[in-house]
């Protein structure tokens, strides 16, 4: 499969180890992955990289995931799937993520089976892995 045929995913988490771990797992599953560590960097990366999907932490300094998702929705509309991946898992957090424009909400530690199921539903399966 050519690199251009693979789905590109942007993983955003201020915890560099968390972003790296999720990114590495997704690369092993056949996705092209880019990681960023702030909301501001995420906005710039979406413009430059045009990913097919964004996985976004909620609790980040300066610009949290809620604000980042709201800005992504304002500039890209509903076509860009955005998945929240956060330690915040209360009903209020899930409600707020939905209101900010997230398509789905996963709680850390990540359930990789649930994550792949979501990616398949939004993007299809990039590889037989």
From TrEMBL:
Q: Which CDD domains match?
A: REC_2_DhkD-like (cd17580)
Q: Name one Pfam family in it.
A: Response_reg
Would you say which domain of life the source belongs to? Bacteria
Annotated Response regulatory domain residues: 8-123
Q: Which UniProt keywords apply?
A: Phosphoprotein
Q: Which InterPro entries match?
A: Bact_response_regulator, CheY-like_superfamily, Sig_transdc_resp-reg_receiver
4-aspartylphosphate-modified residues are where? 57
PANTHER family according to UniProt: RESPONSE REGULATORY DOMAIN-CONTAINING PROTEIN (PTHR44591:SF3), STRESS RESPONSE REGULATOR PROTEIN 1 (PTHR44591)
This one is known as Response regulator
Protein source organism: Dyadobacter chenhuakuii
Provide the organism lineage as a comma list. Answer: Bacteria, Pseudomonadati, Bacteroidota, Cytophagia, Cytophagales
